[in-house]
Amino acid sequence: MAKLTDHLGRPVVAVTGVGIVTSLGVGKEDNWSALTSGRSGIHPITRFPTDHLNTRICGTVDFLESSSKGASPLTYELAETAAREAIGESGLSTNDFGGQLFLASPPVELDWKDRFDLYAAGHEGPAPDRVLEIARGLNSLDIFETSQFGSIADRLADTFGTRGLPITLSTACASGATAIQLGVEAIRRGECDRALSIGADGSVTAEALIRFSLLSALSTQNDVPEKASKPFSRDRDGFVIAEGAAALVLESLDSALARGATVLGILRGCGERADDFHRTRSKPDGSPAIAAVRAALSDAGLSEDEIGYVNAHGTSTPENDKMEHLSLSTVFGERIRSLPISSNKSMIGHTLSAAGAVEAAFSLMTMREGVIPPTINYDNPDPAIDLDVVPNVKRSADVKTVLSNSFGFGGQNTCLVLAREPV
């Protein structure tokens, strides 16, 4: 019989529902089929003009119709779609979920089209005064609410009937993993029996592209888009910006078993450490990332030898991949050469605020399906990064535990340890 508490006497946290949307498609089935086939979702940008831009490729979700209004409508649509699949799989009510909500999302911004519409509808005078005049003539409360950072979570809470104050967070590229961590901790503290953790990001705009380009963070290998994201390869030159969402229904194992739910996996441990070295670069000795991995293992009550697979952050930037190799080789020692480590970003790109949740979802599917997705585009190995990246072709494997890494700008490092079965 499965133990209902972990090595520290806390409730064991189970996953009973998963939902995914990426550039590969909507839903777990389409995403998993594409991911394990080594198919890329990266394509030329069609959403806005790319004349004179250094980067003209992306992993946008262009096939999801958004009927949402207000700021960041696509982020809301992605979050709702993933959440609906996850809750549906869990067997819980999609309009009376009854647990807490934790949403990782990007900062809310009005799209330029909306700004131009506001401007065009105004009267004569300086632009700021015109916008204020328009706002006064409309429902200013509605404008205020839809432009707030928490507006998406508020709408999701109303849609799915979550309980308590919905939490919206942003920890850069670690956001999705942080949303899961907050859900796990809430259940462990006894604040709720279940939680809905979502990472969603539909924020690929011309502005976002230019911002990351100014940081020299994006790939400029535009000619063959599907070959641009190449984590751990010698000729990697930056990440490919992308969109997506993943939702996990988390429950105490006691609650899940009591209602006869199917347990898809266990959230064994969470670890986080801050890095104050630089806004975009990692501390040269990798100590914060190393500490985050070790904190996750300690929280899970597992040793390094008990991890069967690493779902790498693997962004395809020269700096990140080098530092992730340093941190993993420090923690795992000589075993690092034989431990399978692959990057989903080689196919879906970097989904930013959603990445940690998307990759946790794929980690759960890796354990359940017994298949490790490959790192595609691995045609030019980096001799300084000696890893088994599961190159180019999926691999059958009996994986019982996964370490999923998320290392974000601003020194945000969050690692999750997931297991196939309860202790």
From TrEMBL:
Query: What InterPro entries would the database entry show?
Result: Beta-ketoacyl_synthase, Ketoacyl_synth_AS, Ketoacyl_synth_C, Ketoacyl_synth_N, PKS_Beta-ketoAc_synthase_dom, Thiolase-like
Q: Which SMART domains match?
A: PKS_KS (SM00825)
The record's annotation in Pfam families points to: ketoacyl-synt, Ketoacyl-synt_C
Enumerate the Gene3D superfamilies for this protein. 3.40.47.10
For the Ketosynthase family 3 (KS3) domain, which residue ranges apply? 10-420
Q: What class of enzyme is it?
A: transferase
Q: Keywords for this entry?
A: Acyltransferase, Transferase
A Gene Ontology molecular function term of the record: 3-oxoacyl-[acyl-carrier-protein] synthase activity
Q: In which pathway does it act?
A: Lipid metabolism; fatty acid biosynthesis
EC identifiers of the protein: 2.3.1.179
The record's listing under SUPFAM superfamilies reads:
Thiolase-like
Superkingdom of this entry's organism?
Bacteria
- Protein name in UniProt: Beta-ketoacyl-ACP synthase
UniProt lists the family membership as follows: Belongs to the thiolase-like superfamily. Beta-ketoacyl-ACP synthases family.
